[in-house]
Structure formats: C-alpha cells, structure tokens
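User: What would this chain look like folded?
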Amino acid sequence: MADLVKKEAEKTKKIGEVQRSITKSTLSSTYQSKMRQIENYQKDISRIVSDKASINQKLADKRKKRIVAVDKLQKEEIAQTKKSAKQQQNIFTAYERQIAELTKQIKIQETASVEEPHISESNSIEEYDVLVSHATEDKESFADEFVQLLQNDFNLKVWYDAISIKWGDSIRTEIDKGLKKSKFGVVILSRSYIGKYWTNYELEGLFQRESNSGKLILPIWHNITKQEVQNFSPSLAGKMAMNTAFMTPKEIAEKLYELLYSKN
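Assistant: Here's the prediction, encoded as structure tokens.
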C-alpha cells in the first residue's frame, strides 16, 4: 500500500509538471504529445487507485477473519477451562473414593491383625523411630540415600520397604506393622507418590494414627509443586514440609534427628 501511494504521488507530480510546461507558445504537435503523456499518467493513476482498493478489500477480509478467529479461540478457551475443571473434579472424586476404600481396607486389616495369634511377643514390642513412605520411582533420586543416612549417620531405626519387607512376606501386614510401631511417618511427596495404591494406603494409615496421637506425619516435597500437593491433599499442603529443591538428604536427616531428640 505504501508503494502504491508513493507511485500515485509521483504520477500526480508528473502530470503537474507536464501541465506547467504547456504555454501559449507551445506548438500544436507538442501540445498533443504532452496531453497524451498526461492521459497515460492518469491511466496509471486509475490502475493504482484500483490496486489500492483491492488491497483495502483484502485487509478488510483479513480483519474480518481475524475477528472470527479470535472469537473462536475465546470460545475454545472457555470450553477447555470448563473441561479442565470437570476433569479436576473427577480426579478429586476418584481420590475421595480411593481414600474411602483404603480406610475401609485398613479397618478390616486392623481387625484381622488383632485376631491373628501368629505375631510373636518380640515383634509386638518392637518400635521404629520412623517409617519412610515413598514411591519406588524416588528410591534412587532421594529415598535410598536418605534412609542410609538415618541408619548409618544418626543410628535411627527405620521402617523401609526394601529393608523391612522380606521375600514371601505379606506386604499389607508388614506395612501395618510399620504404621503401628513408628514414632513418625516421613512422607516423600512426589508426582509418582500421589498416584500409587500402596503409598495412599500408607498415607491413610498415618492420617488415622495422627488423628488419635497428634503430630505424626512429616512431609518432604520432592520434585513437586505446592499446587500439585494442594490438589492432592489440602491438609498435607498446610503442613510445614522439607523440600529437596532447597535441602540435601543429610540436612533433612539432621532435622529429623533433632525432632526425635527433642521429643525424647
């Protein structure tokens, strides 16, 4: 459009120059030639005006398409927001059902454990300083090193699945023993943790004990955001937590040792 405006100005200027060059003394043949020049310039200007009109029409069409596209995008964003909200609600509902089922299973297991006569007296008095609840995916990145520090550097007695559950043991029974006999439950919250059955089973057991015994659950955030924890469990999000993004495994282990020492 800028080029066309420039050309139109140039043609108009040339018409003016030709017109000013015509005087009373201009010969007839020269006059006719100059008039043809003016006519050609006017034709050029007509084509330029036509091209400008065409460009303006194209611009108008594109503006209209843009308005339609923006309107469509806004509607899609609204629809996506509603869809996300519905999906989130479905997730919350699923968690509530899962927690209810886990609660039911724990109650059944507690009843069964009371009735089981095969647990020896030595086992019934054994107590752990801490149970470490975690997802398998977080063993290598944090849990294994953390547990080794607790045992080797701070001489704490730790319930940890890789150590406490032996070949052929009932996983549910051994977890229940750990839940009942641990002073604290360290929960390593991660994206892997919040979607697993056994971790949720352990967490529900810790929540039940905490409701009766006071502070018990000690959360550690591992590669997870506050919003993700909030979405999973508002009550956990409200607890003071250690965070592996800012603290080393040894620093967190020291904090746990200090807590146990002051408790004792």
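The longest strand covers residues 182-189. If you want, I can go into more detail on any region.
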